[in-house]
Write a structure and sequence with these properties.
five-stranded antiparallel sheet; transcription regulation; glycosidase; 17 helices; DNA-binding; DNA-binding transcription factor activity; 41% helix; 384 residues; transcription; 14% strand; DNA Methylphosphotriester Repair Domain; alpha+beta; TATA-Binding Protein
């Protein structure tokens, strides 16, 4: 578990392994960077704690973990804390109380910190303009972006860009390259084996040590490439139709390859939950992709189609159609925040066999008792 150390005498918080050696009596600890920021501390310039993930405390109640997952999924992008509370069956006031008691930050503050941290990484790693960084990180306006960066990092975005180190910048060679940091114990070779075994033909590909897949953003096609890069990070190269909301793409990519999990509990996640569910129940998923997927030309590596949307699959006979129609009717919620028993019951109601339902739950991460925050974004864009 990541624990951030904040020094009362300097007002700075650090990630584990920082070379600073403050007196123990001057140190407070936080499990979330957002909590340290809410308490008035600013990020260390030496260890740059915005580059690592924090986790939800082990003793946090399930409601808090589900709320965190809903925020990561993007519920606060277009809505407010009332919407998060309503999804969980509690008031926004009670939700804020739970966050204050267990995380030390409000739901809005948690979401703002995540956006700001991702934006700081884009300022370091890429040559995107300040405006492009703002919208890629999920901010609704430049004014909102500038205010949040000053609140979290005590500096304007242009000043933060000027501070980046020479080795930070990733030189683009087609697509947008981004680091995906992971904690010790992550095994990319083992994760590739999992991804290769479950790869959807035409949609996903594992060649040598690189995973690739097609995606769609608001109906437009794109491609992701993920491979090894350093001792503490993977490299994601995103080929996207636009950069707005790229924070959402990186968050989901992190979940897909399991770097948002504890070292002892790493499993492959899901880019698109519907894709995982259909792959678990379809007799011939490759045939479904050929018949209903959106063709994507010129990618190579065996990538030919984007996975079909629920609205298209709803006309399929049998369990695939039943599943798609239930998703469209909101009878099955594949949003990573549904309690395990509720998800399994909803899948059983449309005829999904027990082993397949358990497989879906496993890939969606609801086999774990706690949802973890990841180093990345907040929301999920619409996709296939």
């Amino acid at each position: 578990m990541t624990t951030y150390s904040a020094v009362r005498t300097t007002g700075i918080y650090c990630r584990p392994g920082c070379g600073a050696k403050p007196l123990a009596e001057n140190v407070r600890t936080f499990e979330l960077a957002a909590s340290a920021e809410a308490a008035g501390y600013r990020a260390c310039l030496r260890c740059r704690p915005y580059r690592v993930a924090g986790t939800v405390p082990d003793d946090a109640p399930e409601l808090v973990c589900r709320a965190v997952q809903l925020i990561i999924n993007g519920l606060l992008d277009e809505a407010n804390e009332d919407a998060v509370g309503a999804r969980l069956g509690i008031s926004a006031r009670h939700l804020r109380r739970l966050f204050a008691d267990h995380l030390g930050v409000t739901p809005d503050g948690f979401a703002r910190s995540r956006r700001a941290h991702f934006a700081r990484r884009l300022l370091d790693d890429t040559d995107l303009s300040i405006a492009e960084v703002a919208f890629a990180s999920g901010f609704g306006s430049l004014r909102q972006f500038n205010r949040a960066m000053r609140e979290v990092f005590r500096a304007a975005p242009s000043d933060l860009r000027a501070r980046r180190r020479r080795a930070d910048r990733l030189v683009a060679d087609g697509g947008l390259p981004l680091r995906m940091p992971f904690s010790p114990g992550y095994d990319w070779t083992a994760m590739l084996a999992h991804l290769r075994a479950d790869a959807v033909p035409g949609v996903e590909s594992v060649v040598d040590d690189t995973y690739r897949r097609t995606i769609t953003l608001d109906g437009d096609p794109g491609m992701l490439e993920i491979g090894p890069a350093g001792q503490d990070h993977l490299l994601l190269r995103a080929h996207l139709p636009y950069w707005e909301g790229v924070i959402h793409v990186v968050e989901r990519a992190a979940r897909l390859v399991g770097i948002d999990q504890d070292a002892d509990d790493r499993t492959p996640g899901a880019w698109a939950p519907l894709e995982i569910a259909v792959n678990a129940v379809a007799d011939d998923v490759a045939d479904l992709v050929r018949r209903h997927g959106t063709p994507v030309d010129g990618l190579g590596h065996g990538l030919t189609h984007a996975f079909p949307a629920a609205a298209v699959l709803a006309d399929e006979p049998g369990i695939v159609g039943e599943l798609a129609r239930a998703v469209l009717a909101d009878k099955i919620r594949l949003d990573w925040a549904e309690p395990r028993d509720d998800l399994l019951a909803a899948l059983a109601a449309v005829g999904v066999p027990g082993p397949a339902a358990n497989r879906i739950a496993w890939r969606l991460g609801v086999h774990r008792s706690k949802s973890l925050s990841s180093p990345y974004a907040i929301a999920a864009p619409s996709d296939s």
